[in-house]
């Protein structure tokens, strides 16, 4: 599938409807349904064959048909037909590991914990929670029969969206037998997780082949997979979808972190948010327009398609206010599509992904990759998050963040990369052994002697990297490595240690012990093209957001990459991405301000303009013209020493500057 084949303006239309709802589809009007989508500038709607409750929404003789579905109503069939008549794509949704009907009918199919209790999400004996099915059991055949029926009745399908497809640990009879068959020990947690991965890979291949055999042009996607394993699982996926409801628990950093990895692969990517104020099924919750504009702008600024989640009311009537909101957002996306199609990111820095890093999780929870994404975004650097086995030579700078255990193979590759003119920044124990006692990457030019005895220390910046840094000893709240510089290595910042380690019977004042003495241990150093920071500085930034941490990294990177792709005089919250089409370079600027508006809710309600923004972009050649998209307002510019320099008259949320 070519990248442009995946539509830019999608709706993911949830319909998880419990059996206690008596009037399903009572007020459904197929024509009004499809025309509402058309008016909202939607060009793809994912509609439901089967929900988490395990019920079916089409004409079938199977007993799982929703008991409250209006007699004779083929809800799915009418939705697909009406959408197709309006030229709108209609992939079909099937729930996989959540199926209440199957769980209640066949409790032996429910995944089990080691103590034999049921797996439920969220956990709880009498909580309103989904029972999780084990695909090792005969449930997989049950699901295959349902899927085959859908493929037969709606052939050719536009696509199938399989949901709830993570690696499920289980101790059912079938799971234990399967583990033993391939020499895994069901008593061991790691082996149970390995079995979950084996099962997932087997059924993803099976169901993908099933769909493609029936409808060769259909898209196939399995939702819930860890993004850290994309390279292993791309053969099962036609596209990469990043579920990231910013106000629903994912936050505003999860999507930009994941997309910087996902966009590296030769599959189209898509960001999924929702119209809800909070998370899925927040009936009556409507997101402010600025928030939804920001979330979709983030997507298109990174070359991703957009998907907005909604949930159809059980009676089958779309929320008018929701589709007015969605229509306003998608009209804006549609106007910009000529500058989005087939665009690819231009990047300068590769951040090597940790094997068990943040993008292996379902949601962002703070960590090295989130911290690197936050920091480098605030610094306006153009970067990807890459696997250690991927191509590193395309980048001017490689960052080894915080706790990457450098294998002999990777050390050899990095050595060759440095010889060819590349640059490396390692932080924390990256390039060292896990206990910081041995040096694994000799090019760093340091001598490690273990971790510091102090939980909290301070850093004193040297003259080469003290630009904009207040003249103080700056606290680092986590333990660092004790490292000294070898003969040819230049010390850029030193560690200042406290009087003593704080303890219950030996402390001073309210918080950390004050600084006492400057040591010979380095906080930052550079050896030729290899720099080192002795703290897990990216995780520290994710946890604390302390501005000197960002200044430390910025000033060290400036020594290694003195000509960044983009320079811009704008607040740290301004996001910048640089994209390339065949004959164009496009600079995206996003200036929105998520605020903590509730206890656990960040939200954008206002768009405050930036005016006369001074900008400089590194380009291979002088452009013939520079303008703002989509209205093509020309921008005056100078081209000096390979850089295009200009002022953007106004950034009202999202601006696109085009170089042709």
What does this structure look like?
There is one protein chain. The chain is 25% helix and 25% strand. The protein is α/β, with parallel strands linked by helices and 660 residues long. It folds into 3 domains: 3-342, Alpha-Beta Barrel (TIM Barrel); 347-560, Rossmann fold, CATH 3.40.50.880; 566-659, Immunoglobulin-like (Sandwich), CATH 2.60.40.1180. The protein has a 9-stranded mixed beta sheet with strand order 13-12-14-15-22-21-20-17-18, sandwiched between helices. Strands 7-6-3-2-1-10-9-8 form an 8-stranded parallel beta sheet. The chain has a 6-stranded antiparallel beta sheet with strand order 11-24-25-33-29-30, covered by helices on one side. β8, α8 and β9 (269-274) form a beta-alpha-beta unit. α13 (537-544) runs antiparallel to α14 (547-560). The protein is globular, with a radius of gyration of 27 Å. The two termini are 28 Å apart. 50% of the residues are buried. The model has no long low-confidence stretch (mean pLDDT 95).
Topology, element by element:
Blueprint: E1 9-14, H1 30-39, E2 44-50, H2 75-85, E3 92-95, H3 100-105, E4 120-121, E5 130-131, H4 139-153, E6 159-163, H5 173-181, H6 189-214, E7 219-222, H7 230-233, E8 240-243, H8 254-262, E9 269-274, H9 289-301, E10 305-311, H10 320-336, E11 344-345, E12 349-352, H11 368-378, E13 383-386, E14 397-400, H12 408-419, E15 423-427, E16 446-451, E17 457-461, E18 474-476, E19 481-485, E20 490-498, E21 515-527, E22 530-533, H13 537-544, H14 547-560, E23 566-568, E24 575-580, E25 585-590, E26 595-598, E27 601-603, E28 610-618, E29 626-629, E30 633-634, E31 637-640, E32 643-651, E33 654-659
Parallel strand pairs: 1-2, 1-10, 2-3, 3-6, 6-7, 8-9, 9-10, 12-13, 12-14, 14-15, 15-22
Antiparallel strand pairs: 4-5, 11-24, 16-19, 17-18, 17-20, 20-21, 21-22, 23-28, 24-25, 25-33, 26-27, 28-32, 29-30, 29-33, 31-32
Helix pairs in contact: 1-2, 4-6, 9-10, 11-13, 13-14
């Amino acid at each position: 599938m070519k990248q442009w084949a995946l539509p830019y303006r999608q709706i993911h239309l949830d319909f998880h409807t419990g059996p206690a709802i008596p009037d399903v589809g009572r007020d459904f009007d197929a024509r009004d349904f499809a025309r509402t989508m058309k008016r909202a500038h939607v060009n793809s709607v994912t509609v439901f064959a089967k929900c988490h409750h395990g019920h079916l929404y089409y004409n079938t003789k199977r007993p799982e048909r929703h008991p409250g579905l209006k007699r004779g109503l083929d809800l799915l069939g009418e939705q697909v037909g009406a959408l197709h008549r309006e030229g709108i794509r209609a992939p079909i949704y099937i729930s996989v590991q959540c199926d209440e009907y199957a769980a209640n009918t066949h409790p032996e199919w429910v995944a089990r914990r080691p103590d034999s209790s049921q797996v439920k999400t969220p956990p709880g004996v009498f909580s309103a929670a989904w029972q999780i099915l084990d695909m090792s059991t005969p449930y997989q055949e049950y699901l295959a029969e349902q899927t085959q029926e859908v493929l037969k009745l709606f052939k050719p399908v536009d696509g199938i969206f399989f949901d709830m497809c993570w690696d499920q640990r289980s101790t059912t009879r079938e799971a234990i037998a399967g583990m033993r068959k391939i020499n895994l020990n069901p008593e061991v947690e790691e082996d149970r997780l390995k079995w979950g991965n084996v099962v997932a890979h087997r059924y993803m291949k099976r169901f993908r082949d099933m769909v493609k055999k029936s409808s060769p042009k259909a898209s196939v996607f399995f939702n819930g997979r860890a993004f850290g394993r994309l390279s292993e699982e791309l053969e099962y996926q036609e596209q990469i979808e990043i579920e990231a409801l910013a106000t629903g628990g994912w936050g505003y950093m999860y999507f930009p972190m994941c997309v910087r990895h996902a966009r590296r692969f030769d599959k189209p990517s898509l960001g999924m948010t929702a119209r809800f104020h909070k998370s899925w099924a927040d009936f009556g919750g409507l997101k402010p327009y600025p928030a939804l504009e920001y979330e979709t702008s983030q997507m298109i600024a990174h070359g991703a398609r957009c998907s907005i989640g909604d949930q159809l009311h059980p009676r089958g009537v779309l929320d008018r206010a929701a589709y007015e909101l969605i229509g306003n957002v998608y009209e804006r996306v549609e106007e910009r599509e000529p500058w989005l199609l087939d665009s690819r990111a231009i990047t300068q820095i590769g951040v090597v992904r940790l094997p068990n890093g943040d993008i292996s999780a379902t949601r962002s929870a703070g960590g090295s990759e989130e911290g690197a994404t936050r920091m480098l975004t605030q610094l306006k650097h153009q970067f990807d998050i890459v696997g250690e086995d991927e191509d590193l030579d395309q980048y001017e700078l490689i960052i080894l963040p915080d706790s990457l255990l450098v294998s002999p193979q990777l050390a050899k590759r990095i050595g060759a990369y440095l010889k060819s003119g590349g640059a490396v920044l390692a932080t924390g124990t990256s390039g060292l052994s896990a206990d910081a006692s041995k040096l694994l990457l000799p090019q760093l030019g340091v001598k490690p002697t273990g971790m510091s005895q102090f939980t909290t220390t301070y850093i004193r910046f040297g003259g080469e990297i003290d630009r904009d840094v207040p003249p103080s000893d700056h606290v680092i709240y986590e333990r660092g490595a004790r490292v000294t510089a070898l003969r040819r290595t230049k010390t850029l910042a030193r560690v200042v240690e406290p009087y003593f380690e704080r303890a219950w019977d030996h402390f001073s004042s309210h918080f950390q012990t004050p600084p006492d003495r400057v040591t010979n241990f380095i906080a930052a150093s550079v050896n030729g093209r290899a720099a080192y920071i002795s703290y897990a500085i990216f995780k520290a930034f994710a946890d604390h957001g302390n501005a000197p941490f960002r200044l430390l990294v910025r000033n060290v990177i400036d020594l290694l990459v003195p000509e960044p792709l983009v320079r811009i005089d704008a607040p740290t919250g301004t996001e910048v991405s640089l994209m390339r089409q065949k004959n164009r370079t496009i600079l995206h600027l996003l200036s929105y301000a998520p605020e903590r508006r509730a206890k656990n809710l960040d939200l954008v309600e206002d768009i405050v303009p930036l005016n006369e923004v001074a900008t400089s972009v590194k380009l291979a050649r002088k452009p013939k013209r520079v303008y703002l998209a989509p209205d093509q307002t020309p921008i005056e510019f100078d081209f000096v020493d390979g850089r295009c320099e200009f002022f953007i008259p106004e950034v009202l949320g999202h601006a696109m500057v085009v170089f042709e």
